[in-house]
Fold Trk system potassium uptake protein TrkA.
Amino acid sequence: MKIIVLGAGQVGAGIAVEMANEANDLTVVDQNPVLLKKLQDRLDIRTVVGNASSPTTLIDAGIEDADLLLAVTSRDETNMVACQVAHSLFSTQKCLARIRSTDYLQYPALFSPTAVPVDYIISPEKLVTRHIQHLIEEPGVLQVLDFIDGRARMAAVEAKSAGSLLGVRLRDLPSYMPDHEFRVVAVFRDNTSIQLDGQTRIQVGDEVFFIAACEDIAAILVGFRESGKRYKRIIIAGGGNIGEKLALSLENNYQVKLIEIDEAHALHMAKTLQNSIVLLGDAADADLLKQENIENTDVYCAVTNDDEANILSSMLAKRLGARKTLCLINRSSYVDIAQGSAIDIAVSPAQITIGALLAHIRRGDVLAVHSLRRGAAEAIEIKVHGDRQTSRAVGRSIGKLSMPEGVSIGLIARGEQLVFPHKDVCIESGDHIVIFLTDKRRIKDVERLFQVGVTFV
């Protein structure tokens, strides 16, 4: 696939790393030659220095025969104009754009073939807000991901000694929770994926990934750790786009306080939010946090645009007694350092956005992609097509599929039915399959397994 990426920032660079390792013809465009040089030193890709929305620049990048344009610069207007130019002058097959401003997003009619021809809009703030909201709705999880149009979720949890399922063989788990169907798809022990079979037992400290119907997640979580109280009191540090959207999404179900350092913006937030308390001040002010009873706060969410400020205020909040700290971190190099210290969950907007983009880049009918464990693992939802003659999977039982190492099928959606697979379940055309890859480098093998071949024998 010939792909042009406009923008070499966190998202553009992340996409370049993902796709360059998958034998794609990739060109990255940016006005900053230093960013492009860093990418070229790491990856075997083409780069073009120039204005991303300029027809001349796009021609230099190879737009005339490109399969896909990803406009992910930091400016919405540049992304929109680039898609317009690509569609109008070069009939580019597919254009995706990152749009951040709510001024544009509140008018869906703006994005259409007869207006601004964007085939798919990526809104990082919307994606990140939904991700954090899910983490708050499911106490105790490290990650929680939606599949099958929100009917199923995959959750990651660190196993604790109080969990009733610890020490139980995987084959015996159903008998311990007969009212809740689920499947463990991966276990990481000491940051390494372990081989799973029916005899595997969950140990304290394991990072367990499992998938279940949405309504069963909370009950199953209790099996891997102590029963977690539902969160009630939330403090949000930062009233930017994400902070505002997060407060709006939570304030009707939780006691929300939002801290904003800019007076004019704090006044705007006070008018916008109906059931939240808006505080003017510095989230790194220990006296302010104590005054607002940080020791009784269930979740402290640091979501400003400053990574260092988020990390430091989260560490302070934890030291002062916050039950859980959640920190927004843009720099990927900071994520691994921060997570697991005083910061319970580090959220990477770039990784979340990249996952949404990958769903439109992967070959085959891929409906959802989630990047896991800081990009090392991946979970995808794929729709199966073909028949026994044209597909390596259709009409065959899971036990007879040549599944790559480290790849497991977690769930099959067949119409309205959710099927938790075992080796005798046969794949049918039209099935939606949720697949977990402990090593995302296996994605090509998965695509080949489920792709339709006209002359497959």
User: Anything to note?
Assistant: DSSP finds 15 helices and 22 strands in the chain. The mean pLDDT is 90. The chain has four domains: 2-122, 140-224, 233-351, 359-450. The radius of gyration is 23 Å.
